[in-house]
Design brief:
CATH class of the largest domain in chain B: Alpha Beta
Family (chain B): Belongs to the zinc-containing alcohol dehydrogenase family.
Organism (chain B): Hyaloscypha variabilis (strain UAMH 11265 / GT02V1 / F)
Largest interface: A-B, 13 and 16 residues
Distance between the termini of chain A: 11 Å
Largest sheet of chain B: 7 strands, mixed
Keywords (chain B): Metal-binding, NAD, Oxidoreductase, Zinc
Radius of gyration of chain B: 21 Å
Mean pLDDT of chain A: 94
CATH topology of the largest domain in chain A: Quinone Oxidoreductase, Chain A, domain 1
Strand content of chain A: 25-35%
Number of domains of chain A: 2
GO molecular function (chain B): L-iditol 2-dehydrogenase (NAD+) activity; zinc ion binding
Number of strands of chain A: 19
Helix content of chain A: 25-40%
Oligomer: heterodimer
Pathway (chain B): Carbohydrate degradation
CATH topology of the largest domain in chain B: Quinone Oxidoreductase, Chain A, domain 1
Number of helices of chain B: 12
CATH architecture of the largest domain in chain B: Alpha-Beta Complex
Order of helices and strands of chain A: EEEHEEEEEHEEEHEHEHEHEHEHEHEHE
Number of domains of chain B: 2
Distance between the termini of chain B: 8 Å
């Protein structure tokens, strides 16, 4: 275990050393020890035990940046976490020491108009653990222990595992997306991208009473997994074509739309959850949607895309942005603990687990793969830091 | 050009004890449990957080609720069990700011949004902080109000007044925000017909906001002719005097005399009176929206059949929430709404009880009590 002498104060009072994974450059993760003080009056101290890895963590790992956001100082990654409360601040009555909690890691300002309207996910001053957007960077959750505001630590019922507790973060994205989609019962839904977020959106579409959920991906195994595990009802495997001219691109997009319409037999869909960020998928989404329908822009990929905009606008198809989540944890907890028959088994999304801080580099390597050495799909890699 | 209000305040002779330095005397007008008033010194409030500001209260309007606590000692479950400072419709000058404050500066004149929610419950986080169960609202027991020299608020509950708006008008931003909240709940849009019951300050402000939002017909209804005459000059396009007959008959008269044969798109009741509510429902258009702004008796006889057959929407309206104060300030800034006309009486702090008595006798429209040490006869506008 490599030890770096760097220290960072993360609270007041007597410091204790805790282990942390810190990114210093492209693919350059070091294990360090940080000073952690006692939690402030409204904070709790949480021993982080399960952390799922996300595309953004991978991006920082592989590029030391995420799009326009450049890492400016050593950064701990991880933001999809759950753990156990080990200490509470003087004003905290809930949660209590020993409680198992899911961590909501985005802290908004609570003062601006957006926060007051309930849209704190798009607060301009929001600080999000593991994101290099704000500076000094708000360090991520791949640490043995962190101090965090109590009101953003959501208590887990005993029936919900810590792995599932970590899944509540991406599930929040799916919940927030489904709210903004305003899916009616009996609607038809198309999902582009059968990774963790796409599968969770498919699950939410089912929970919202969709009549038919069609899922599309370039990987046959992923969409097979989706249908087999009741995340979706129908599947299409998108051909790996690479059209170059705009005419060819739009023609390909129309082809994909035709595949959707015939594969499921439902014609144009009511709503699309675009979870890839790939231009051809959004183009295909526009051709796949019925007039008056809605396309949820969840995937973050190419920031600039060429779109058949009149095909959307003239049919009043709304393109709706979705960014993270707000007010989703309580609903997510209720959902996964309520035995809802429409909800597929979300624990199946955790496909690989790595133990301890030494396992983190292996976890990152695995998270970038399509399949593991045994041929299993890689959907969500979880790092278990119960024993750091 | 008359001197600015703030300059004049700095020159004015303080009415009470001036030997103590600034920031050391916080005089308050206190209601006791048995309904008597007295003046008392209270500690100057400390800033509770680095995001709070300290305001010198310069003008406070009186509301029916303030008078009600005085005369009855309670409103619903809120009971005056210990001495309570009343007042919540205030404007003042920022005299000190916490170290994290960035949106207001010392010396700025601000309207006060006097209710601070918890910011962590589902209502707060979900965008409806006016429904927060832990709301700390000025002059609602046990929280003291603003009839004192100083008051503290978080910076985001202080709204800078446009330069052409006087401090007295600033005190009306609070009731104006109530009207804005109701109008937004009603979904008032251009070309609509709006029926407002009650031509007191809230009803009048609802008329003004409705006009500002583009309503083409704004009908003010009251039992008092003098109030209606004012409404006609202020913001109503037409008026109707409630007659001594049934609510249905009054509704029928409204619909014929005002050429609202289909009924009004929106009805706002600012009275809380059963007969007005009933009349309003009868005069509501099919598919229309009724907003209950006025608080009256808790249980009434209600023509629910009308609501059903018309598929009307009956909405409660409680205080104000996200964006309401901001819109109120903007309406004043753009001069789409004027509030100066509503200020009929102003009293120095030493005569606060007279103000309460006057309001209880329904004198004028809106009475203002100046803050301690602020004298009357200061100019009300730079215009």
């Amino acid at each position: 275990m490599a030890v770096n002498g760097a220290q960072q104060v993360n609270g007041v009072g007597k410091g204790e050393e805790v282990v942390a994974s810190v990114l210093h450059g492209v693919k350059d993760l070091k294990i360090e020890h940080r000073q952690l003080g006692v939690p402030e009056a409204s904070e709790v101290q949480v021993a982080v035990q399960a952390t799922g890895l996300c595309g953004s963590d991978l991006h920082y790992f592989n590029h030391y940046r995420n799009g326009d956001i450049i890492v400016q100082e050593p950064l701990t990654l991880g933001h999809e976490s759950s753990g156990v409360v080990t200490a509470v601040g003087s004003q905290v009555t809930n949660p209590k020491v020993g409680d198992r909690v899911a961590l909501e890691v985005g802290l908004p300002c609570l003062e601006c108009d957006l926060c007051k309207e309930g849209r704190y996910n798009i607060c301009k001053s929001l600080r999000f653990r593991s994101s290099a957007k704000s500076f000094p960077h708000f360090q991520g959750t791949l640490q043995a222990r962190i101090n965090h505001p109590a009101v953003y630590c959501h208590k887990l019922p005993s029936s919900v595992s810590l792995d599932l507790g970590a899944i509540l973060e991406p599930l929040g994205v799916a919940i927030h997306g489904s709210r903004r989609a305003a899916l009616k019962s009996g609607s038809t839904v198309l999902i582009f991208g059968a990774g963790a977020v796409g599968l969770l959106c498919a699950a939410m579409a089912k929970v919202c009473g969709a009549k038919t959920v069609v899922i599309a991906d370039i990987q046959a195994e992923r969409v097979d997994f989706a249908v087999k595990n009741k995340f979706a009802d129908a599947k299409i495997v998108v051909p790996m074509k690479r059209p170059q001219t705009i005419e060819d691109k739009l023609s390909f997009a129309k082809e994909v739309a035709e595949m959707v319409k015939s594969a499921s037999g439902i014609g144009e869909v009511d709503a699309v959850f675009e979870c890839t960020g790939v231009e051809s998928c959004l183009q295909a989404a526009i051709y796949s949607t019925r007039p008056g329908g809605r396309i949820m822009l969840i995937g973050m990929g190419s920031p600039i895309q060429t779109l058949p905009i009149s095909a959307a606008a003239l049919r009043e198809i709304d393109l709706v942005g979705v960014f993270r989540y707000a007010n989703t944890y309580e609903e997510a907890i209720k959902l996964v603990s309520s035995g809802n028959p429409l909800l597929p088994d979300l624990s199946k999304l955790v496909t690989q687990r790595f133990n301890g801080f030494d396992g983190i580099p292996g976890a990152f390597a695995m998270a970038g793969r399509v399949k593991d050495d045994e041929g299993n799909l890689v959907l969500k890699v979880v790092v278990d830091t119960t024993n750091p | 050009m008359a001197p600015s209000l703030v300059e004049a305040i700095n020159q004015v002779t303080v009415v009470s004890d001036t030997t103590k330095p600034k920031f050391q005397r916080n005089e308050a007008f206190v209601l006791q449990e048995k309904g008597q008033f007295h003046y008392a010194d209270r500690p100057v409030p400390k800033l509770p957080s680095t995001k709070h500001v300290l305001i010198r209260v310069l003008a406070t309007g009186l509301c029916g609720s303030d008078v009600h606590y005085w005369q009855h000692g309670q409103i619903g479950q809120f009971v005056v069990r210990q001495p309570l400072i009343l007042g919540h419709e205030s404007a003042g000058e920022v005299v000190d700011i916490g170290s994290s404050v960035t949106t207001v500066r010392r010396g700025e004149r601000v309207a006060l949004e006097p209710g601070v929610p918890c910011q962590t419950c589902d209502y707060c986080r979900g965008g409806r902080y006016n429904l927060c169960a832990l709301m700390q609202f000025a002059a609602t027991p046990p929280h003291d109000g603003t009839l004192s020299t100083y008051y503290t608020l978080p910076e985001d509950f202080c709204f800078v007044l446009p330069p052409h708006i006087s401090i007295e008008e600033g005190a009306l931003v609070e009731p104006l925000s109530i009207a804005v909240h109701s109008a937004r709940l009603a979904g008032i849009t251009t070309g609509q017909s709006i029926l407002v019951f009650g031509a007191g300050p809230i009803g009048l402000l609802c008329c003004a906001v409705a006009r500002a939002l583009g309503a083409s017909t704004v009908l003010s209804v009251d039992i008092e002719q003098s109030r209606l005459a004012f409404a006609r000059t202020y913001a109503a396009t037409a008026t109707y005097r409630m007659e001594d007959k049934s609510p249905e008959e009054n509704a029928a008269s409204i619909m014929t005399t005002s050429q609202l044969s289909e009924g009004a798109d929106v009805v706002i009741d600012a009275t809380g009176a059963e007969s007005c509510i009933s009349c309003g429902v009868h005069a509501l258009r099919r598919g229309g929206t009724f907003v209950q702004t006025g608080l009256g008796t808790s249980n009434i006889v209600f023509p629910v059949g009308q609501i059903c057959s018309k598929e009307g929407v009956y909405k409660g309206s409680f205080r104000y929430g996200p964006g309401d104060y901001k819109m109120a300030i903007e309406l004043l800034n753009l001069k789409k709404v004027g509030v100066k006309e509503l200020i009929t009486h102003a009293y120095e702090f030493s005569r606060a009880e007279e103000a309460f008595e006057g309001v209880s006798r329904r004198q004028g429209i809106k009475s203002i009590i100046y803050g301690p040490g602020v004298q009357n006869a200061l100019i009300t506008s730079s215009e």
